[in-house]
Amino acid sequence: MTHRPEVSPYRVPVRDLIRRPGAQHQVIETFPTPVVLGTDVIGVPEGKDIELDLSLESLSEGIWVSGTVHALAVGECGRCLDEVRLDVDASVQGLFTTSPMAQDGDDEEPEDVFEFDGETLDLEDVVRDAVVTSLPFTPLCRPDCPGLCDQCGARLEDDPDHTHEVIDPRWSALQSLTEEKES
Asked: What DSSP string describes 25-36?
């Protein structure tokens, strides 16, 4: 018995749009993400729902995809390490072509251009790019989060008057003399 791999939920058939400039198709789908979309700090976890609301329009150059992706990203606050939940509403756009497009005198592909096989679009790259670029570099549980004490790691939210006695290093030698007398 042979085992067929599961079809990616990001793959969309577009045979009805090929070579029909002006033809459009709506894609409104909700499915669990097959892989994490994001970084180690914050991302849409594997298995959480992602909603696509996209318009596919046939052009002479290929298929233009535009719309939005909605998901819930989970991570940790960059200051206090508490859990952060962030609604992601990212704009998606890209041109899918059957042949690579190079700009005049440039061997590099334009940023929003993707290749496809002529029958189905694989939207995973364009969706991942949209989600990852919309996530904050340093997520915060709230803008005024005080974070953790940089000396002992105490939560400053729980103890706003938290302080440590700071001794000027130039006087530290004298402190050792008082510690000897107390012993």
From this structure: EEEEEEEE-SS-
Task: Copy the structure tokens of residue 90.
Answer: 């990212």
Q: How far apart are CA 52 and CA 8, in angstroms?
A: 14
Give residues with Cβ within 8 angstroms of 34, minimum separation 6.
8, 9, 10, 46
Question: What residues of the chain score a pLDDT lower than 50?
Answer: 1-5, 104-105
Task: Map tokens 């670029």 to a residue.
Answer: 133
- Helix H or strand E encompassing 160: none
Rounded CA separation 90/1 (Å): 42
Task: Measure CA of the first residue to CA of the last residue in the chain; give whole Å.
Answer: 80
d(CA 64, CA 67): 10
pLDDT in tens, 65-109: 999 999 999 999 999 999 999 999 999 999 998 776 555 445 555
Please say whether the beta carbons of 27 and 96 come within 8 A.
Answer: no
Q: Quick one: pLDDT at residue 21?
A: 83
What pLDDT shows up at residue 172? 72
Cβ count near 31 (within 10 Å): 12
